Amino acid sequence: MNLKKETHSSDAKQLLKLISQATSPFHAVAASVEQLTEKGFEELRLGDEWKLKRGGRYYVVHHGSTLVAFHIGKEKDAELGQIRIAAAHTDFPCLRIKPYPDMKEERYARVNTEVYGGAILNTWLDRPLSVAGRVAIKSEDPFHPEMKLLDAGRPVLVIPNLAIHLNKEINKGIELNKQTDMIPIAGMIEEKLNQKSEKNAKSTYFMDFIAKECKVKPEEILDYELTVYCAEEGGFVGVEDDFISAPRLDNMTSVQACLSAIIEGTRENGIDVIALFDHEEIGSKTKQGAGSVLLSLIMEKIYMSLGKDHVGYTEALAKGLFLSVDVGHAYHPNQRDKYDPVVKSSLDTGVCLKEAAGQSYATDAEGVAIVQQILENAGIPYQKFVNRSDGTSGSTLGSIASTLLPMTIVDIGVPLLAMHSARELMGSRDQKSLTDLLRVFFSL
User: Fold this and answer.
1) SS3 state at 432
2) What integer pLDDT is reported at residue 356 of this predicted model?
3) Which residues pair with 58 in a beta bridge?
4) CA 346, 433, 322 angle in degrees (round to 5)?
């Protein structure tokens, strides 16, 4: 008897494919560009003059890890229609590799790292880990270093737990120190008696590895932005495949939904935009983050390129609608006291609409009413989420972006368990529900 549900939708499969590619924010953007260019989107550069056409589909990459893509409707006055924006983020909690990474303890080659974002540290122990990101290489023109993407594509690091025999209190809970306990092991150093002194023997073990992966000499590497990522594959879990267990569900679920929607949307009487920002996990207040003026600059440039002035842009902005697409907290059956007694969301039950009186979620009643009617009219399952009155949860890029773009904003996403773990859990049908909502959003 086959107990599996018919849950392996094309949206879920596409999500798992993206997760396998999106091993760093730079790789998430590269994979996104691949999907967009296959469907006819043209690349623009922020510093160039834009000659936009009605019906045109375009994208802009900003500093390698943030992407904005947009579609201009074919109708004559499409720029006078409603602006619709869906935003997500390309980064995820993880470890990042510091400059001069090589550390040696006895014969163990170790890699100096720092924690990025609010990672659940103990979930990174005893897992196969790999490395991805970008590397800056020496060039003839110092103002334009060569930038190379690197993805080891295989497990090269591990952070082993201490055996329970040496820490008999471990099951009572242990606080991990980010500097001493979270240092990965890369390999064992062989003694080279005839080459280097013991002090310097293989002191560039990991830098040599990076250079080999980039096919350059170690001295040609100037700097890098390298992410340590969980190298496990995502997949379906449960007797009837009710769940997807995978790394980086936060926030590749939203990135893929935004990409599918902007590619498949059919609206022709307005301007549709997706913004995939970096640095949400560390506050968004960077040149690539939702707290920058990047999106407002791009939006104004679109309108200027279509012959409108600043006043026309601000008038259109005021009538726009913005969906902040990020994951939500699912109800945990073992931790009932962590949730509101009435309003909570579950896995595999549809899109989550997130609300907070303190505006950690930027949602308001009018925005919810709009999205709720879209969902109900399209027959898409949904639910709502609020925090316990005596607790808080993380904010999203929606509340940050709302200070720069005074539009109606609604926070939505798929609910997760194990959020910020090295491996997270979602409902297997929720990706389709989220993607269907965004498809309708860019089609009505």
Assistant:
1) helix
2) 76
3) 42, 70
4) 100
Distance, in Å, from the CA atom of 69 to the CA atom of 41, rounded to the nearest integer, reads 8
Q: At 399, is the pLDDT very low, low, confident or very high (cuts 50, 70, 90)?
A: confident
Positive/negative CA dihedral, 217, 218, 223, 224: positive
Q: Which residues contact 321 (CB under 8 A, 6 or more apart)?
A: 82, 83, 84, 85, 367, 370, 407, 408, 410, 441
Q: In angstroms, rounded to a whole number, what is the distance separating the alpha carbons of residues 112 and 99?
A: 8
Which residues are CB-neighbours of 353 under 8 A, at least 6 positions away? Answer: 363, 368, 371, 372, 382, 383, 384, 385, 410, 411, 412
Question: Would you say residue 141 has pLDDT above 70?
Answer: yes
Of the candidates 88, 43, 38, which has an alpha carbon nearest to the alpha carbon of residue 69?
43
Could you check whether the bond before residue 251 is cis, i.e. omega within 30 degrees of 0?
yes
State how far the alpha carbon of 370 is from the alpha carbons of 82, 182, 236, 315, 376, in Å.
14, 45, 33, 20, 10
User: What are the pLDDT digits (tens) for 152-164?
Assistant: 999 999 999 999 9
What is the average per-residue pLDDT within 6-30? 93
Indicate the DSSP class of residue 102: E
Element (H, E) at 378: helix 365-378
Which of 125, 129, 145 has its CA nearest to residue 137?
Answer: 145
Total-model pTM: 0.94
24 burial level (CB within 10 Å; 0-12, 13-18, 19+): buried
- pLDDT at 432 (0 to 100): 97
pLDDT single digits (tens) 256-275: 999 999 999 999 999 999 99
Distance CA 387, CA 442 (A): 29
Mean pLDDT value across residues 341-369 = 88
Reading the block at residue 13, the tokens are 């499969």
Among 125-129, 311-315, 326-330, which stretch is predicted with the lowest mean pLDDT?
311-315
Alpha-carbon distances of 175 from 115, 162, 167, rounded to whole Å? 14, 13, 12
**Residue 75 DSSP one-character state:** S
Sequence-distant (≥ 6) Cβ neighbours of residue 333 within 8 angstroms: none
Residue tagged 């196969």 (tokens): 128
**97 SS3 class:** strand
Q: Would you say residue 181 has pLDDT above 70? A: yes
The 10 Å Cβ neighbour count of residue 112 is 15
pLDDT tens string 54-80: 999 999 999 999 999 999 998 877 677
Give the pairing type, strands 108-116 and 42-44: unpaired
